[in-house]
Amino acid sequence: MLPAVSVLLSRHSALLLAALLAVSGLPVRAEKADSEQALAFDAGRMVLDGKRKIRTLSGGVEITRGTLVLKAAQIELRETAQGQFATATGADGQLATFRQKREGLDEVVEGQARRIEYDTVTETVRFIDQAQVRVLRGGAPADQVTGQTIVYNHARDVFEVQGGGAAGAAATAAGGGRVKGVVTPRKSASPVPEAASPEVPR
């Protein structure tokens, strides 16, 4: 059984995000305006547990918050005094999906997994089981990373990718247990020609 692999990215090191997701040296940030938007949902069915403050949404569910879009077969939306916590799960071989624009860039972060947890308070998205996150740059696929669990904490600017984890032998047997990524280099701008130095009279 392969051990779990964990890679951490901080604002200062910018190793994983710059190499696997951005290759830009800039921290990945969600749109600031998203945190100020209300969370809206659309579903085929809703069961409300008023005592526990939990809404269970099913039937092709979609949750939106600004540029953020979360889709799944079922989403459990829990209300707290601070905000909302959503747990999205896929069904019948379909994965839950996540999409959000990056602030100040023509880039969109997309992710999918069998289970996605989104915390509006900490601005944390957790992709669990068959997790994959990719970047669309200018509408075209760019960087991609896969792992057993992928966690992005916007508030702390930390991005973590784990390998086999709790899945253990099952993940290894299925070819998992490793962190994998594809990096597409950014096109560098054309160098600016240097101005000719004026001739000094002798």
Mean pLDDT: 75
Name the shape in a single word.
Answer: globular
- What is the ordering of alpha helices and beta strands? EHEEEEEEEEEEEHE
Kindly report the spatial arrangement of strands forming the biggest sheet.
5-6-9-10-8-7
Q: Identify low-pLDDT runs.
A: 1-28, 166-175
Largest sheet: 6 strands, antiparallel, barrel
Distance, first to last CA: 77 Å
- Look at the helices and sheets and give the structural class: mainly beta
Helix fraction, binned, reads under 10%
**Number of helical regions:** 2
Structural overview:
- 6% of the residues lie in helices and 48% in strands.
- It is globular.
- Strands 5-6-9-10-8-7 form a 6-stranded antiparallel barrel.
- The protein is built from 2 helices and 13 strands.
